[in-house]
Design a protein that fits this description.
Length: 695
């Protein structure tokens, strides 16, 4: 018997694809998720083709079919959720390059099992699958050596299968005996309607039991956290002293090396709220504390959702998995060993300005007194956000609130910059650049969002290097960028204190920085903004120099140009969708595709003559020029070299994401007396870059 045998007699094609998904689960998770999604697609399309109660929606994509109100009513919320889970994992397998794990595949097969069980129970004309049929991951085939398919190969396979189905559909449509086919289809629909009626007469008693939740989902997550469970003391541990006078049985107890309980896990059915067992788990914790003299951390879970309750310190909170033994031991040890943040001295050599000290004290109060775990620091560019957060990391480490810190940035250049800052101001933290040194260990880890996503998704030997409790503090640099959709999962994954740094928080409906940190709109944890910093004398206000450029202010009209200029206008490459040259270009569109040499020359001349000078007035100070796009940046550099050939092409350089070795250029630009002195940028130097020499 195999996992999907209940499909074989009446749905051989669906059974064959489901079997492919099951066989690939352990050796090739990506392919497994692909075939699981295909099973859902075939099943849903079969239902719409043969179930007279379903009316096809506006199109026949699986997404439209799944979300059809008639189908959702028929399947119910739970089955719909299973189908969506399979579909989402399948989409990731085909369209995203991030690794797919065995856990992904097993979860997908488990959800597919539940969906196809419902499908067979609803539509089997003959024998229905038994109610006590359950999914057992141990029945999945042992992996045999094979070449795992890539994203590209799966995309090609997807296209080939779609073309094959279209060809088969056309062939059926072209058959001469169309009337016979329609009669057979009508008879089949009548049989399906009768099968559905028979299924409706018997209540669906199929469900995961607590034991199955435990054996599959929870054991898998505990294994990823390094817990090698035994059936003796770790499961169904008997405790006495319950209020009703009866014995209690704790689903799991996670033990420390000293034989004392570090945590307990209370498991509930997947359909139940994970928090339903919270009071029962608390009573178990009371019993364990009375017996062993140590209060364990409480986890409640239904296999999908997990809640952690360290009721000595915090209310229950949603987490993405379980802590390791060392992490739990440290959590319990900190109950008595961590120091007051308010009484721990701040290192003034790292961040000694009054507003930096105020920021650190306010964040400390937010964590310690308010019992909040997320903080947002709004600080003007140039006021020292990085040094402030380095001082915060130092404060938390010395007060025993933090052992390991993760600093996240959205660009490799910012990661390099942050690593250098930690090395300078907190060298004992042994900062690790995870973009370049993925296997190194330290106390401070600095990383980009995509790299961290890959590291989270790639467990080694069944265990995750970075589990949910690995970091005690996560810092988001430039918290107004890149954090709202694609990479938000990182902050939800790690169960850590969270601090965001930004000079420009967003307060928009779908991009709200404050909401990300559980704060009221417009009310950060602490703020030190530009106007205040200028008033205090720490920053200087911008000084504007007006350059009267007609094109920049008024745009350009074709009729106002000379004959020579009109000829040049006609030869330009305009919009691909509308190749005809326009009659005019508005001011805001200048430099998008129309670059005027005279305009650029006049701006550069103003910069070179009126810009702030250094080296005794002999040289322009470090300067950033912001261009409209890549082509505009290259054009500015070209005009600079034409106008100032004696500087030998070294004084000004384009520094954008498209330029190879751009990190080297940034390092050279950061050096006081080193070329280049003008950086022409589009997307790399607009936020977060720390070059104090820039004037």
């Amino acid at each position: 018997m195999t996992t999907f045998d209940f499909l074989a007699s009446e749905f051989p094609e669906i059974h064959a694809e489901a079997t492919k998904a099951a066989r690939a689960a352990l050796p090739d998770p990506r392919t497994s998720c692909f075939y699981a999604r295909r099973v859902v697609e075939l099943s849903v399309k079969w239902a719409f083709a043969h179930d007279p109660s379903l009316t096809p929606p506006y199109n026949d994509t699986v997404n439209a079919l799944l979300h059809d109100p008639g189908f959702k009513r028929l399947a119910g919320d739970q089955v719909f959720r299973f189908a969506r889970d399979v579909q989402k994992r399948g989409n990731r397998a085909v369209h995203e390059s991030a690794p797919m794990t065995q856990r992904d595949a097993i979860a997908s097969i488990s959800a597919l099992f539940e969906f196809t069980y419902w499908f067979a129970r609803t539509y089997n004309r003959g024998e229905k699958p038994p109610a006590d049929l359950t999914f057992d991951p141990r029945a999945l085939p042992v992996p045999q050596p094979s070449a795992a398919k890539t994203v590209g190969q799966l995309k090609e396979l997807e296209i080939a299968l779609e073309e094959s189905e279209l060809a088969r559909t056309r062939a059926l449509a072209e058959l001469a005996d169309q009337a016979r086919l329609e009669a057979e289809l009508a008879e089949l629909r009548a049989q399906v309607a009768a099968a559905k009626l028979r299924a409706d007469e018997t209540p669906d008693a199929h469900d995961y039991t607590e034991a199955e939740t435990r054996d599959f989902f929870i054991d898998l997550l505990l294994g990823e956290a390094g817990w090698a469970l035994s059936d003796t003391r770790d499961r169904e541990f008997e405790v006495s002293g319950m209020p009703d006078g009866k014995q209690g049985f704790v689903d799991y107890v996670l033990w420390g090396e000293d034989g004392k309980p570090l945590a307990l896990v209370e498991a509930k059915r997947t359909r139940r709220d994970a928090r339903a067992g919270q009071q029962q788990a608390k009573l178990y914790a009371d019993c364990l504390e009375a017996q062993f003299g140590q209060r364990p951390v409480i986890f409640t879970t239904n296999g999908y959702e997990h809640w952690m309750w360290d009721d000595v310190s915090y209310p229950p909170r949603l987490v993405q998995g379980f802590y390791t033994r060392d992490e739990l031991a440290l959590l319990i040890q900190r109950r008595t060993s961590k120091h007051s943040l308010a009484e721990t001295e701040i290192d003034a050599d790292i961040a000694g300005r009054h507003y930096q000290t105020q920021s650190l004290r306010r964040i400390g109060e937010h964590f310690e007194v308010d019992r909040q775990r997320k903080a947002l620091l709004v600080m003007a560019t140039g006021a020292g956000k990085t040094r402030t957060v380095i001082a915060l990391a130092d404060l938390l480490i010395r007060a025993n609130w933090a052992k390991r810190v993760l600093f996240l940035a959205d660009r490799t250049a910012l990661v390099t910059q942050a690593v250098n800052a930690f090395k300078e101001h907190l060298p004992d933290s042994s900062p690790v650049n995870l973009v370049k040194e993925r296997d190194d260990d330290g106390r401070v880890y600095v990383c980009t969002y995509p790299t961290m996503m890959n590291l989270i998704n790639a467990p080694a030997n069944g265990e995750r290097r970075f589990g949910v409790g690995y970091f005690d503090l996560v810092v988001i640099d430039e918290a107004h960028r890149s954090v709202f959709k694609k990479y938000r999962a990182i902050f939800e994954y790690f169960d850590a204190l969270l601090v965001g740094l930004t000079a420009t928080p967003l307060d928009e409906i779908d991009r709200n920085t404050y909401r990300l940190f559980d704060l009221e709109p417009g009310v950060p944890t602490h703020a030190y903004e530009l106007e205040t910093a200028v008033g205090d004398g720490f920053l200087v206000p911008p000084r504007a120099i007006s350059v009267p450029l007609k094109f920049q202010r008024q745009g350009i009209r074709y009729d106002d140009l000379t004959a020579e200029e009109q000829e040049e206008w006609d030869e330009l490459d305009w919009d691909e969708d509308d190749p005809d040259p326009p009659d005019a270009v508005k001011a805001e569109a200048i430099n998008k595709w129309l670059f005027n040499a005279d305009t650029v020359d006049r701006v550069l001349e103003t910069l070179m003559t009126s810009g702030v000078k250094v080296a005794g007035g002999d040289r322009l100070g470090k300067t950033i020029v912001f261009a409209k796009n890549q082509a505009h940046a290259k054009f500015i550099a070209q005009r600079f070299d034409i106008n100032y050939p004696h500087l030998r092409g070294k004084f000004a350089a384009v520094i954008t994401s498209e330029v190879e070795q751009n990190e080297t250029l940034i390092e050279q630009f950061s050096m006081k007396d080193h070329d280049p002195h003008i950086a022409i940028s589009v997307d790399m130097l607009d936020t977060g870059i720390d070059v104090p020499e820039v004037v």
